[in-house]
Write a structure and sequence with these properties.
Blueprint (H helix, E strand, L loop, with lengths): L2 H7 L1 H27 L5 E3 L29 E5 L15 E4 L10 E11 L2 E7 L18 H4 L7 E2 L3 E9 L3 H9 L3 H22 L14 H6 L22
Antiparallel strand pairs: 1-2, 2-7, 3-4, 3-7, 4-5, 5-6
Length: about 250
């Protein structure tokens, strides 16, 4: 058996290969997705309810999966686009992720485009959260409800160079895991400890156990040996002869 066959027949190596393949797939996904979507951070989690149009008094995105608005705990997939290709036709306009014009290093904002203007060849987008007052999506938006008048109070919209990308998909609920880990710093060390423990149980402990040695009994013959050896005290069986059907004449 060659070395490759030995590896494929070893249970520990099989498990290790499965883990390695899983790591490669996940790593390829997270490193390849930014290239495919043309944005540095293509996956984000909605942290606030500014985009949430409430139903029955709560921001319940799970029971309204196909709604065009966003909810707390949604995972959003972002695609980098040319600002000129963005849809500004409210209320069916694009939801964009952009940097705060007065604090670009702060957490990016995810709001819907309500209108746009071009100043000196540069596009500026007026935005608003679907769930922000006074009128919620898809009601018509008044100028005093623009983010530029409610958040950074300049009246100037979001310039095209501050746009990170547009939201192309939302996955409800699963973002609450990330939010829970952020609000409970002790969870991450515990999770890492559990993973290390599982790896130890799967690989390290079996290697520390000694394999039992096989003891061959060479002092006494096996049962098969007794059966195959003839008994010297017994006479050999008498030979039987058949009568010749055609005896020779004397």
């Amino acid at each position: 058996m060659n070395s490759i066959q030995k590896i494929t027949h070893n249970e520990y190596m099989k498990s290790l290969l499965v883990v390695a393949v899983g790591v490669l797939i996940i790593g390829g996904f997270f490193f390849g997705l930014p290239l495919a979507l043309n944005v540095d951070v293509p996956i984000r989690v909605v942290e606030s309810g500014s985009m949430c149009v409430t139903y029955n008094g709560s921001c319940d995105g799970g029971s309204h999966v196909f709604e065009s608005t966003l909810h707390v705990g949604d995972i959003i997939i972002i695609q980098g686009v040319d600002a000129k290709d963005l849809n500004t036709n409210y209320p069916n306009s694009d939801i964009i992720v952009y940097q705060n014009p007065t604090n670009p290093t702060a957490t990016p904002i995810v709001h819907r485009i309500v209108t746009s203007d071009e100043v000196d060849g540069k596009l500026y987008f007026q935005t608003k959260g679907d769930g922000n007052p006074s009128k919620k999506w898809p009601s018509p938006v008044e100028e005093h409800d623009y983010d530029s008048n409610c958040i950074w109070h300049t009246g100037e919209g979001v310039s095209e160079d501050l746009v990170i990308g547009k939201v192309i998909m939302r996955i409800p609920w699963f973002g609450h895991i990330t939010l829970f880990l952020r609000s409970n710093p002790w969870c991450l060390p515990v999770l890492i400890a559990i993973i290390i423990g599982l790896i130890a149980l799967e690989f390290i402990l079996p290697m520390l156990k000694k394999k039992p040695r096989k003891h061959e009994n060479t002092r006494y013959p096996t049962q098969e040996t007794f059966e195959t050896q003839p008994d010297p005290t017994q006479e050999p069986p008498a030979q039987e002869f058949e009568d010749d059907p055609n005896p020779a004449d004397d």
